[in-house]
Amino acid sequence: MDPMPHFDFDLALAARQEMIDHGFNPDFPPAVEKQVAALADDPLPALDGNVRDLRPLLWSSIDNDTSRDLDQIEVAERAGAGIRIRIGIADVDGDVTIGSPIDQYAAAETTSVYTGVRTFSMLPERLSTDLTSLNEDADRPAIVVDLVAAGDGSMSAPAVYRALVRNRAQLTYNGVGPWLEGKAAAPAKVAASSDLQAQLKLQDEVAQALRQARHQAGALNFDRTEPEVVMSNGKVTGITARQKNRAGELIEDFMIAANEVMARTLQGAGVSSIRRIVKTPERWDRIVELARRYGETLPAQPDARALNAFLEKQRAKDAVHYSDLSLSVIKLMGPGEYVLVRRGESGEGHFGLAVHDYTHSTAPNRRFADLVTQRVIKAVMARGATPYADGDLAAIARNCTLKEDAARAVERAMHKRVAAAALHDRIGSTFAAVVTGVTPKGTFVRILNPPAEGLLVRGAQGADVGDQIKVTLLSTDPRRGYIDFGR
Question: Are the C-beta atoms of residues 128 and 67 closer than 8 Å to each other?
């Protein structure tokens, strides 16, 4: 019998069906297609007291290798004893009016969904990768978040305003990260410009200060394996682990800072808004119990600093299992959610980031909550009435939370299928693995390279969570996302 039967399964079609099963509409309606066909390059807004010309600055973007919907660009400069940061955010609202067919579709879907084999965009590509994308060498309107960070990571002089910007260099995490870490040569665009090199190192310097300040405040530093699909001619040929690096951290730190400034600006303006929160863990007692298994003691009451110290200690002691510990704590903390914060209310904070004032505002091409926040801040800047009543914001927040949960379910299901497809031709191979679960349904293991999880169907007796073992791949079923191992 052939141990590697012919694999012929349309993963893209499976992804589309998975979207439908989880309440999404993967196809743009005719009214949206008609509106897209009528789109044209809008004239740039006039430069006046409300719109600044920041095109001469050395803006750059850093994103994934395949990203085409560029939501933000960054630039920094010395400012006395601190460093001034500007984050330019794509002005999506300028092309997507409230109540238009595109807006109605985005409001229903709320998020782009990334399945590895196909991206289901919240906005049509004509917008998200062109008209509203901060593409290299293109003049674009933007919302700019401006702040100064001191050496200790404290922030001052916050401002939000409209501007014209121009992305001077579209860069990638995989190109910039290893260079910042001193592990690789600079990518071509960076190597060709000493000014860009200095700019990126300045951004890295201030990002590290912001990160250090957040960690001292108790921000949690999780280590989650992010799978990345390798495609060739439309077919899955492999799966790799996306490695965290300094470039990714830089953008993460800047986006957190921008979202803090945005939330505080809206609160200071006395308007209602949507916040992004992660509640203080209700299952803290289970986190305490988990720490006890590792020989550590956590306070009886939720304490982000103590939890972060425990996590960092375990990362140093056992890096192999740290991602599994991270996942366990994340599940016990519970997912983030969007909530309405009415004018005059302080709202709840983000436990995982150790910040009290936090919204989502930096990805309006990909998340509807960010587009809504952009519309509210533009109304504030124009001294006009807010475009949403409190009831509207509450309903939007609920739908964004529900659809985000559904998007995660789609992405998990497709990751299992993609992993099964990627491993289909490696039946009989042996892998290093970690036992991740022992349940009534069976014993589960995670192989490290490539990253995938499956069922230990042979030799499971005596295996326990945390054991490092060798396993042999016995079979895969991409249709159901099943991977079976033995030892």
Answer: no
Partners of 298 in the β-ladder: none
- Global pTM reads 0.91
Q: Are residues 182 and 80 in the same domain?
A: yes
Query: With left for phi above 0 and alpha for psi between -120 and 50, is residue 43 left, alpha or beta?
Result: beta
Q: Domain residues for 140?
A: 53-278+335-406
Q: What is the Rg, in whole angstroms, of the alpha carbon atoms belonging to the chain?
A: 23
Q: Of 270, 443, 277, whose CA–CA distance to 348 is shortest?
A: 277
How many domains does the chain contain in total?
A: 3
Calpha distance 459→482 (Å, rounded): 18
Which token pair is 161? 């305003």
Q: How far apart are CA 7 and CA 134, in angstroms?
A: 40
**Mind listing the pLDDT tens digit for each residue in 345-367?**
888 889 888 888 999 999 999 99
Among 142, 193, 132, smallest CA distance to 165 is for 142
Interval 246-266 mean pLDDT:
97
Are 173 and 230 in a shared domain? yes
More confident residue, 376 or 321: 376
Instruction: Tell me if 180 is assigned to some domain.
Output: yes
Q: Give the pLDDT score at 176.
A: 98
Average of per-residue pLDDT values in the chain: 92
Give me the pLDDT at residue 127, please.
94
Could you tell me if 229 and 306 lie in one domain? no
Domain contains 374:
yes
